[in-house]
Design a protein that fits this description.
The chain is α+β, with helices and mostly antiparallel strands and about 475 residues long. The protein has helices at about 20-70, 115, 125, 175-220, 240-290, 295-325, 335-355, 375-390, 445-455, and strands at about 95-100, 105-110, 135-140, 145-155, 165-170, 330-335, 360-365, 370, 395-405, 405-415, 460-465, 470-480. Among the domains are: about 240-315, Helix Hairpins; about 330-480, Histidine kinase-like ATPase, C-terminal domain (Heat Shock Protein 90), CATH 3.30.565.10. The strands form three sheets. Strands 2-1-5-4-3 form a five-stranded antiparallel sheet. Strands 7-9-10-12-11 form a five-stranded mixed sheet, covered by helices on one side. A hairpin with a 2-residue loop joins β9 (about 395-405) and β10. α6 runs parallel beside α9 (about 445-455) and α8 runs antiparallel to α9.
Length: about 475
C-alpha cells in the first residue's frame, strides 16, 4: 500500500518591513492631528463655559430687575404680555420668562405662557432652596427647547409678609445652536487637518529620506572594480554625514584589502612560478638525452630542493592565512626564554659559521614568560635567519633578551647592509623585499610578516630600526 503524499509545508515568509517614510508620516500626522484636536477641544470647552457664564450673568441681571419691580409693584400686580419684538432687536435674542411664587408653590404672577413651557417647581423643592444663592437648573421645556432657570428666595414689599420666590428662565436654544455650529466646524477642521497633516508628514518624510535614497543609489553602484567611489558627505544632515563617513571608511578598508589580496595573489603566483619553471626545465633537460645515474641523481636532488622550497612557501602561506582568521587560543605555557635562546644559538650556529658571521646570544638568568613555545621559536628563528642572510662575512648578529614592566623584549641586531628609511614601513608586508635582484633565492619576503603575525597573536608588537651600511635592529615585544 502507498500512503497518501503529504504536501510539504511552504517556508514561512519573513514579514514585510514597514517603510521608515511611512512610519514618519504616520507619526507626524498622528502627533499634529492630536495637537490640533486637543486644542480645538480645549477651545470648545472654553466656549461652553464662557456662554454658560454669560447666560448666568443675564439671568442675574434679569433677576435684579425683577427684584426692583417686585419691591415697587402695587398689590395685585400682574406681569403684562410681552410686546412685539422691535425691528432693531437681534433675531437670536433669547426668550426670558419670569415667575413669582409663594412658599406653597402657588404662582402669584408670571410671564404669560410660561406655565405652558415650564411647569412651576414643587413646594418641597422650594423649601430646600438656600436663601442667598438660589437654585440653578437646566431644563427642557415642553416644546423641547433648553432652558436655564434661576430661583431665589426674596422678601416681599410688606416686611410682615411671608417670603416669596422669583424664578427667572432663559431660552438657550441659540446658545446650543452656536455650540452645534462650532462642533460642526471643529469636525470639519479636524478632517481637513488630518489630510493636511498626512500630506505635510509625507513631504517631510520624503525630504528627510532623500539623502538616504542618494546613499543607497551610490552604494548600489559600488562593485569590486569601483571601490574607489565614495559617498558625497557635503550637505548631508549630521546623523547621515556620520553614517556616510563610516561607510566611506569601510570602503577604504575594503579597497585596501582588495588591493592587498590582489598583490598577494600576484606575489604568490610569481613565487610559485619560479620553482615550478625550474622543476620543469630540469626535468625537460633530463628527458632530452640519456644520462648516467650520477647525472640523474644530481637532477633529482635539484628537483627535491625546489620541491622543498615550494613546500616551505606553502607552509608559510598557510600559517599566515590561519593567523589572519584563526580564533583559537594560543597554547601558552611557562617558557624558559634563556633556554630557548640557547637552542636557537645551537641551531643557527652552524649556518652563521658557514656564512662567516659571529652569532652572540645573551639573556638574563631565570628569564621566563607565558608564551606559545613553537611560535616563539619560529619568530626568533626567523629574525636570526634573516639577520644572518643580510650580514656580510666578518659581521656579527646579536640576540639580547630582557624583561621590564611585564613585557618581554628580544632584540636581534646585525652589522649588515641595513635598510633605507623609505623601505622600513613596508618590511613587514608579505612578499616585500628591499632588493629583489640581490635577494636570496630562498628568501620570498615572508619571514618578517610571520614574525609580525606571531607578535600580534600574543598581544605584542615588533619594531625595527635600521641605517644603511650600519646594520639593523628588530625588537620583538611580548607580554610576559
Amino acid at each position: 500500500m502507498f500512503s497518501p503524499s503529504v504536501p510539504e509545508a511552504s517556508p514561512a515568509r519573513a514579514p514585510r518591513a514597514t517603510s521608515i517614510a511611512l512610519r514618519m508620516t504616520l507619526a507626524y500626522a498622528l502627533c499634529s492631528f492630536t495637537l490640533i484636536f486637543l486644542t480645538g477641544g480645549l477651545l470648545y470647552l472654553t466656549l461652553v463655559s464662557s456662554l454658560y457664564q454669560e447666560d448666568l450673568r443675564d439671568l442675574a441681571d434679569n433677576l435684579n430687575n425683577a427684584r426692583l419691580l417686585l419691591r415697587s409693584a402695587p398689590a395685585g400686580w400682574v406681569l403684562q404680555p410681552a410686546v412685539q419684538r422691535p425691528a432693531w432687536a437681534p433675531r437670536e435674542q433669547p426668550q426670558i420668562y419670569l415667575r413669582v411664587l409663594n412658599t406653597s408653590a402657588r404662582t402669584l404672577t408670571e410671564t404669560p405662557g410660561m406655565t405652558s413651557e415650564l411647569p412651576p417647581p414643587a413646594a418641597a423643592e422650594l423649601a430646600t432652596i438656600p436663601a442667598p444663592d438660589g437654585l440653578q437648573r437646566e431644563l427642557l421645556a415642553r416644546s423641547g427647547k433648553p432652558f436655564l432657570t434661576l430661583i431665589v428666595r426674596v422678601q416681599p414689599p410688606d416686611p410682615s409678609g411671608a417670603p416669596q420666590f422669583i424664578e427667572v428662565a432663559m431660552d438657550r436654544e441659540h446658545t446650543e445652536s452656536v455650540l452645534a455650529s462650532y462642533r460642526a466646524r471643529l469636525w470639519l477642521i479636524c478632517g481637513v487637518s488630518l489630510i493636511l497633516c498626512s500630506l505635510a508628514g509625507y513631504l517631510i518624510a520624503a525630504s528627510g529620506m532623500r539623502p538616504i535614497a542618494k546613499i543607497t543609489r551610490t552604494a548600489a553602484h559600488i562593485r569590486s572594480s569601483t571601490l574607489h567611489e565614495r559617498i558625497e558627505t557635503f550637505g548631508l544632515p549630521a546623523e547621515l554625514a556620520g553614517l556616510a563617513a563610516t561607510f566611506n571608511s569601510m570602503l577604504d578598508r575594503l579597497e585596501h584589502s582588495f588591493a592587498h589580496v590582489s598583490q598577494f595573489s600576484d606575489d604568490v603566483a610569481h613565487e610559485l612560478r619560479t620553482p615550478i619553471n625550474n622543476l620543469r626545465g630540469e626535468i625537460e633537460v633530463a628527458l632530452s638525452n640519456l644520462r648516467s645515474g650520477e647525472d640523474y641523481r644530481e637532477i633529482l636532488g635539484s628537483c627535491l630542493e625546489e620541491c622543498t622550497r615550494i613546500g616551505r612557501l606553502i607552509q608559510t602561506l598557510l600559517f599566515l592565512a590561519r593567523s589572519d582568521t584563526s580564533t583559537e587560543v594560543l597554547q601558552r605555557e611557562s617558557v624558559d626564554v634563556t633556554q630557548e635562546l640557547a637552542k636557537v644559538e645551537a641551531y643557527y650556529g652552524a649556518a652563521a659559521a658557514d656564512a662567516g658571521v659571529t652569532l652572540r646570544v645573551a639573556s638574563g638568568s631565570s628569564l621566563s614568560a607565558r608564551l606559545d613555545r613553537m611560535l616563539f621559536q619560529q619568530a626568533v628563528g626567523n629574525l636570526v635567519s634573516n639577520a644572518i642572510a643580510h650580514t656580510p662575512p666578518g659581521g656579527t648578529v646579536s640576540v639580547v633578551a630582557g624583561a621590564a614592566e611585564d613585557r618581554l623584549t628580544v632584540k636581534v641586531s646585525d652589522t649588515g647592509c641595513g635598510i633605507a628609511a623609505e623601505h622600513l614601513p613596508r618590511v613587514f608586508d608579505r612578499f616585500y623585499r628591499v632588493d629583489r635582484a640581490r635577494g636570496s633565492s630562498h628568501n620570498v619576503g615572508l619571514g618578517l610578516a610571520v614574525v609580525k603575525s606571531i607578535a600580534t597573536r600574543h598581544g605584542g608588537e615588533v619594531e625595527i630600526d635600521s641605517e644603511p651600511d650600519r646594520g639593523t635592529e628588530v625588537r620583538l615585544q611580548l607580554p610576559a
